[in-house]
Structure formats: C-alpha cells, structure tokens
Amino acid sequence: MARIQGVDLPANKRVVVGLTYIYGVGRSTAEKVLQRTEIDPSIRVKDLTEEQTTRLRDELNKAEYKTEGTLRTEMTMNIKRLMDVGCYRGLRHRRGLPAHGQRTKTNARTRKGPKARPGGKKKS
Description:
Radius of gyration: 21 Å
Helix content: 40-55%
Shape: elongated
Structural class: mainly alpha
Strand order of the largest sheet: 1-2
Order of helices and strands: EEHHHHHH
CATH class of the largest domain: Mainly Alpha
CATH architecture of the largest domain: Orthogonal Bundle
Number of helices: 6
C-alpha cells in the first residue's frame, strides 16, 4: 500500500484511480502526474516500486499542485472571506443555505438539514 500526501492509496485499484483518493487530485490531474513521472496508469497500486512511489510523491509535492491540507485551508479561507465581506454568497454560507441559486422551497435538504416538524416533543 502506497502512502502519498498522508493518504493510504487502495492497493487493488489502478494507480490512476488510486491517486484520486487524494483530496484535490481528480482523474485528469492523476493522468497528468502519471504522464510526467512516466508511470503506466494501468498498473495496480500494490505493484508500484518504491522508486515509482517516490517519483509520484515528489511530483505531487511541487507547488503546482494544491492538495490535502493546503487546499482545504485555502477553500476555508475563501468561504470565510466571503462571509466577512458580507456578500450574498457569504450570507448564504453563514445561514447554511445553497449558495449557487438553487431553489429552496422544496429540496435543499442537504444544506438545510432535516425538516422542522410542527409540535415538537412533549416536555416531561
């Protein structure tokens, strides 16, 4: 099992798919990284040599790729900035509502949480 960027890649998956388990690495980025490191995308993660794993690790550590903690921090800071400025998207984030124009009369349960039922619980 290869460990890259603090993430254990699944051993039985192809390398191109296994790399997508790293936050911030999608399919196209994984393919670019493998092309640059000259590693065959069809081999399995468990079949990677130590030298290939090191090449992958070095390529992903370059400043060109923002992954894991760096990317999460940047995303959080972007949302915090929107909330501090007080723009519409920031207000939607602050209230826990959809920020991209979706309807909220119906749906939006993921962002709004479970329905508030009338009546509530009895006090005992």
